[in-house]
Here is the input.
Amino acid sequence: SPSRSPASTSTTMSRSANSSRPRSGWTCLITSIGFNPARYSPREKMLMLLRLVPFVEANYNLIELGPRETGKTYTFRNTSSRSFVISGGTATPAALFYNQASRKIGILGYRDVVFFDEIASTRFTDPEATISTLKDYMQTGRFSRGPQEFSSQASIVLGGNIDTDLERRRPASRYLHLFEVLPEELQDTAFLDRIHAYLPGWELPKIQPANYAAGYGFITDYLAEIFTRLRRLNFQTHVNARRDFGALTGRNQDAIRKTTAGLLKLIHPHRTPEDLEEDELVPCLELACECRERVIEQLARMPGGRTEFKAERFHLPPRT
Here is the structure.
């Protein structure tokens, strides 16, 4: 019901999704976005849920590179009417940010998620100014065009293809780093450091007819409303209450908090910081760390990042 609060809506979702057995919330969500959960391993299901974090966590920046036909575009085109897919082609400042001629806000101003599909073939007009504005937005949630300044909560997702060893489920060994397929203007370490998580799309299988959902799930409009209401909730408090982030840089802290918070909203939306179980937190936290570590590891391999970045494994001790 539209009159429900975000908390009651998410609790209703949780009760209906988790009533029969643990992990059945995964079944409901994955069926609702159009896939058959029985065809995916627990690890693959977690990666599919990571795709949904931009829908429930505001100002979230995600990249997924992998083989074709694993459901990237399908997910962002069909999950919510509040997402927008840019399919290759040219991205202009007027379309993204603000059209000074028509005085209309661009898509970043009124969508929840903007998905850059086929990112390798996307071209930016006035790339230096566009990427600079996008870089500022990914850090602050604000952008300027002329005398106008705007704030937005739209999440940004970069999606594309990377040559993959399908048998071993890993990227082709010829790449020096795993941002190599991006347009040259996006191979900017300061820009890429603003990405919160790198989803390893090469681990997800190509979709076959049996991979599509056959059971019941939430209708799209209802699911989109749930996701929008979950965006208003702050689950980073759940993470802060349990883990000490003291040794990490600010960007690494933000990335891990936001990814973990988004996954918790999707899997355990009924939990408070006080009653969240450790075995509920840990899988979300571990995936968040892994996917931020992948960003840093690839930055450290780039010619422009070797002196600034160092591959590392994050250790987050429990708060005492």
Notes: Residues 1-7, 9-22 have pLDDT under 50 and may be disordered. The longest strand covers residues 155-161.
